[in-house]
Design goal:
single chain, 363 residues, alpha+beta, Hypothetical protein af1432, five-stranded antiparallel β-sheet, disordered N terminus
């Protein structure tokens, strides 16, 4: 059964506000609450969500390869949205089983993080939720959190927008900006999400994390216990991952920005997240994050495929365009740590790639 309101998975639940003073396309990175209040985008075709659902129903998953696990997690979020739509309880235990494999995967290799930061994918709510979970899990590893804490925040990432199905249909289909009353309804989505995963024995912490994601700097008092402190930190990790995912991926109403620009804004213009969370984000994703398109001082164009945490400005780059910006017949790998005469001049979005380059990305 397809989800009866497919428009939701093709909407952008986390827009990013434009900075008028910095020219066309510049963005102001904001916290999850402010992002959620912004205007939702117009509808896209529902084929992405339908494809995920079809794969879930017709292609049984086997093994734990990154791509298989990535698709399985999206199918789980889609199924959870369908459960929420008809009032069925969430299968949190199944989600936790998937999450444990995701956490194991992100600690071993870059497969999932490369899928989560793919700049050329179209938006869908299930995919965005999985991306957030993967980035959050990676940051949790950087913070040296215990495995059970990383699993908690990863699961919260999968469920954090599940309450979107409770918004009125006329609100979901509205193509223009919201009134004040409509914004007030959208702000209740975190509460809806928390309610949908509440009162589940053994998972009492899950609605607490989801609710705290959107508190940000508005938290009324210091944590009263070590458990509350941990849950707040886990919520902050998910929150900053939400903002990062929203910035680097194209949305129907706007183009994406580079990961480099996103991280710069987080350093200089975002008081919303604690300093140690922002620093962990940068250590996790480096100055030029995974899948960043870059122009080298040689004039060549490439894509970041790996990073060096100890040398964040010199990642490993897959070069796919010549100096005259014509695609190679075969790409080559350049580790900038090993080639000190080559360096990155600037990052670009995939929309800025010269014609023909994008077709050669996976060669």
């Amino acid at each position: 059964m397809l989800w009866k309101r497919p428009s939701w998975q093709d909407r952008n639940p986390f827009p990013v506000a434009p900075i008028q003073s910095q020219g066309v396309g510049a963005l102001r990175v904001v916290g999850p609450t402010a992002v959620m209040e912004a205007e939702l985008s117009a509808e896209l075709d529902a084929r992405v969500a339908q494809k995920i659902t079809t794969q879930t129903q017709e292609e049984p998953y086997s093994g734990n390869t990154a791509e298989t696990l990535y698709r399985e997690a999206q199918g789980f979020v889609m199924a959870s949205l369908q459960r929420a739509e008809v009032g069925e309880p969430m299968d949190v235990k199944q989600g936790l089983e998937i999450v444990r494999r995701m956490v194991d995967s992100v600690t071993k290799d870059n497969g999932l993080i490369l899928l989560a930061t793919n700049r050329m994918s179209e938006f869908s709510l299930p995919q965005s939720s999985v991306n957030v979970s993967i980035v959050a899990a990676r940051i949790g590893c950087t913070l040296a959190m215990k495995e059970d804490r990383i699993a908690r925040l990863t699961l919260a990432g999968l469920f954090h927008r599940i309450g979107s199905v409770k918004l009125p249909t006329n609100l979901l289909d509205k193509p223009d900006s919201f009134s004040s009353a409509e914004q007030a309804l959208v702000k209740r989505v975190p509460d809806y999400s928390a309610q949908l995963v509440s009162r589940i024995p053994g998972f009492e912490w899950l609605p607490q994390i989801i609710a705290k994601i959107y508190e940000g700097g508005d938290r009324p008092s210091p944590p009263r216990s070590s458990m509350e402190r941990d849950l707040r930190e886990e919520a902050d990790v998910v929150g900053i991952s939400i903002v990062f995912d929203a910035c680097i991926h194209r949305r129907p109403h706007r183009e994406a920005v580079t990961g480099h620009e996103t991280l710069e804004q987080m350093i200089h213009a975002t008081p919303h997240f604690p300093d140690h969370i922002v620093k962990a984000m940068i250590r996790t994703l480096s100055v030029y994050p995974f899948n960043e398109f870059v122009i080298l001082n040689t004039g060549e164009i490439g894509q970041v495929i790996d990073i060096h945490s100890q040398n964040p400005v010199r990642p490993v780059v897959k070069v796919f365009s010549t100096v005259d910006q014509k695609p190679f017949y075969k790409t080559r790998i350049v580790d900038l740590v090993q080639h000190f005469s080559i360096y990155i001049k600037r990052a670009i979005t995939w929309r800025e790639l010269p014609g023909g380059c994008a077709t050669n990305l996976w060669a």
